[in-house]
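Minutes, project check-in
Item: structure for the 107-residue chain
Input as provided by the requester:
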Amino acid sequence: MSAGLVSDISIFVLAILAGYEVISKVPSTLHTPLMSASNAIHGIVVVGAMITAAQAHDATGYVLMFVASVFAAMNVVGGYAVTDRMLEMFKKRPAPQPQADPTKNGN
């Protein structure tokens, strides 16, 4: 194994551990607002996937970059869908309309 590969794998494993520690400490009541606020970060992931795709030179690289781009795009769309659903919960509902009393004859 080359030193660069060992370094890359080490950084990847450390990022997984740090991410797990950070996310596991967030209370469930804050998880959705925090995720909706991080949609810009998901956009950066899409840009990163496109930049990496530009460096692919064989069929395996193209397939991996296509899959990475699709997952990144799904992440962005899902983040905005969650945000939209969360914001719908804060909208006021219309007041119920009074219903006519069926026992009265309209007089």
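Outcome recorded: The chain has a mean pLDDT of 79.
No further action items on this chain.
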